[in-house]
Amino acid sequence: MNSYPVEMNSNLDVVYYNKGKLNLFRIKVDVTLYNLKHQLNGHLNYGDTMTEASVEYLLPSVDSDERVRFTNMKLQYVNDLITMFSIFS
Hints:
Radius of gyration: 14 Å
Number of strands: 4
Helix content: 10-25%
Strand order of the largest sheet: 1-2
Number of domains: 1
C-alpha cells in the first residue's frame, strides 16, 4: 500500500479536464489564479505543451424545490478562488 504526504492547506477536489473523465487530487488553497492554473497543468496536462487557458467552477446551490443546481462560474480573479475554497470549508 502506498502512502502519500498530505499538505494541510489543501482541498481534495474533482477536476474535469476538457469535459472528459474526472480527476481527483489535492489543490493548494492559498494560491493565486496563475498558480492554480499551474497546479492544474502539472496534474492534468503533464508532458503536454498546451496549457490551461481558463478555469471554471461549478457553483452548487439548492433551489426552492430542494434540487441541487450547478452554475458555471469562470474564475478570473484571486477573490474568486477565495470564494470557491471557502464555500466548503
